[in-house]
Amino acid sequence: METLPRESIVDVLEGRLREDILSGRHKAGTYLPSERELAGGYGVTRNTLKHAFGRLIQAGLLETRHGVGTRVRDYARLGGADLLPMLVRHSPDWMSEVFEVRRSIGALIAARAAAKASTSQVGELRELLAAVAEAQDGDAAQLADVEVHRALARATGNRVYALLTNTLFNAYLPMRAALVEPFADPKAAYERLRPVVDAVAAHDAEAAHAAADAYLTATERIMLEGLGAHGGGK
Predict the structure, then answer these.
(1) Spatial separation of the C-alpha atoms in residues 139 and 144, rounded to whole Å
(2) Quick check: pTM over 0.70?
(3) 100-176-80-214 Cα dihedral, nearest 10 degrees
(4) Best exposed site among 65, 169, 173, 217 by fewest CB in 10 Å?
(5) CA dihedral angle for residue 152, residue 153, residue 158, residue 164, rounded to 10 degrees
């Protein structure tokens, strides 16, 4: 194994181990080599290795059995949605699946918001929507758009929808520069999103569902095209 550079050694080691796990070099359910062997191979101390292990255990990729060893967790079967940001960074192929869920959940959220939104929540949605049109550039418009969707989730009255919305955004916002194309023209982005807010304001659940599905389908297509143009976001 190649000896790691000394700077940010725990970060570098964590990244190397994470990549080896996600790429399948260390397969789910298998035990890692002994700490002594791994530390020697990477040219780090066992204390550094323990720190990296601690982070990966916290991330849900490893689990330690006292007296037995450290095993790669079956994260695909047992992991939660909190792993998505890490998985998306490892492989942008995850994005199409994230968007599929985003589209389905987003349409349900819009319909539920139409049924439940209060007058003050509709007012908040109008203000946040206006911020999309007033954004100075694509990045600002994209972030303003995110706040509209967070507000839609809050308007459902169901806190789980809000958490799911946050999880999905957390999965891809770190690579948003490759996904900014739908927001490059803030006024056009505003016009695409406006029918969703209008339907929620009218308390028309069926129209809100259809408008959100159309909006998310359109932005997903543009985003994925942009991702491909950026070489998968790498």
Answers:
(1) 9
(2) yes
(3) -20
(4) 65
(5) 170
